[in-house]
Amino acid sequence: MTHPNSTLSAQLGGDPIRPAGPPPWPLPNPRIEEAVQRALRDGSWGLYHGPHVTQLEAQLAAYHNVTYAITCASGTLAVEAALQALGLEPASQVAMAAYDYESNFLTIHHVGAQPVLFNLAPDHVYADLSSIADSPQISALLISHLHGDLAPMAAIRDIADARGIPIIEDAAQAPGAIVDGKRAGAWGDIGILSFGGSKPLCAGRGGAILTSSPRLHQRIRLYLSRGVQQWGALSELQAIALLPQLETLDAANAHRWSHVQSLDAAVREILGITPLTTRVDDRPSFYKRGFWYDADAFGLSRERFVQAMRAEGIALDAGFRALHVGRSSRRFRAIGSLTQAERAHHEMVILHHPVLLGTASDVQEVADAIAKTYANADRLAC
Questions:
Q1: Distance between CA 64 and CA 184 in Å, rounded?
Q2: C-alpha angle 158/281/94, rounded to 5°?
Q3: Whole-angstrom Cα distance, residue 293 to residue 277?
Q4: Is the dihedral of CA 132, 137, 143, 146 positive or negative?
Q5: Is 362 exposed, middle or buried (0-12, 13-18, 19+ CB in 10 A)?
């Protein structure tokens, strides 16, 4: 029997769609538990130079079909090491999307370079580089895959090669994704992975740097070296937890992708919600699933929409702040209009990935919560 309050928004006192809230992360994983127990028994978990980090680096390199993988303490440190390895001169210009992870912007500043902000491609959250010919001073590209929206790396690679510009490809949000026939992270001169506590490959903290260049590999190793030790290193225990996850990553990504397609179909008829599109031949990975949110069409401000969805037990948030918003223009150089980045700043909403590993019913609850919030929009807006 339907409860009398089941159609009333939880924000208005109704029953939430998911009373227990969103699924926890990381999920329980018997394979990780077994691997940790083995390492506890043999003592390898506590070694400076045990076998597990070396094994993880070898498997990451093989998985991405690159020559080298270097693990480190975080994805942000990986970006820093990548920028340093490129040998940028002081005040070198690094191109990136004006809508991106803030730490990438700040890390460019940290190494003494200048961010050059490009607008987004229409209806996407990756950089539109069509006007890059007007910027001959650019020394590197930092390209991020965000919210399940994969940047067209083959075309970007062509642009970069024609100008002799190296690419740092940030695949922190897209582990295991396939873009233009290659793994995300394998298109760049240097690729970046993150193993942060909320990421699909999770070790609480950690990151990795991918490259097939012996010269860049040596520079990265030297930058991370402090005598006999690597500073900012990944621990053996973290590697132990990551290895079973890497082995099942493709299956997990396929599971998420199947559920994203079902979710997209379920919400497509609701005014004001538009999923980010995926090219037919690509296979995305989802750390966050992005949607364009049109407050006027939906009838509710984005802030109130997010609050209402969270009250229903759905882990949905607003997207990133655009990098030029609220910052002094002296902190960056902008290429042309940044209107699409401003649109993402105001309109992007993102769904956290754990629910996508659940059942079809779990994913339907996300769609039901959106539909329920839409039906209650007039009252929620008061």
A1: 8
A2: 35
A3: 14
A4: negative
A5: middle
| Contact (CB, 8 A) for 309 and 18 | no
CATH fold label, 10-27+249-380: Aspartate Aminotransferase, domain 1 (3.90.1150)
Low-confidence stretches of the chain (pLDDT < 70) are 1-5
- Nearest to 93, CA basis, from 59, 142, 25: 142
Residue 280 is predicted with a pLDDT of: 86
For 129, 154, 189, the CA distances from 133, given in Å and listed in that order, are 9, 18, 20
Q: Which of 176, 154, 156, 178 is nearest to 165 (CA)?
A: 156
Q: Is 30-242 assigned to CATH 3.40.50.300?
A: no
Q: Are strands 207-211 and 225-226 parallel, antiparallel or unpaired?
A: unpaired
| Mean of the per-residue pLDDT values of the chain | 96
By the 8 A CB rule, do 140 and 86 touch? yes
- Residue 299's region, left for phi above 0, alpha for psi from -120 to 50, else beta, is left
For residues 202 and 26, give the distance between their C-alpha atoms in angstroms, rounded to a whole number.
7
Tokens of 2: 């339907």
- Measured CA to CA, the distance from residue 182 to residue 126 in angstroms comes to 18
Contacts of 125 (CB under 8 A, 6+ apart): 97, 99, 146, 147, 149, 276, 290, 319, 344, 348
For the chain, the structural domain boundaries read: 10-27+249-380, 30-242
pLDDT at 135: 82
> Which pLDDT belongs to residue 133?
81
DSSP characters over 240-254: HHHHHHHHTHHHHHH
Burial class (CB in 10 A: 0-12, 13-18, 19+), 366: buried
**Angstrom distance (rounded) from CA 186 to CA 277:** 22
What pTM value is reported for the model?
0.96
Q: Are strands 207-211 and 68-72 parallel, antiparallel or unpaired?
A: antiparallel
Amino acid at the residue 25: W
CA angle 24, 29, 30 (to 5 degrees): 145
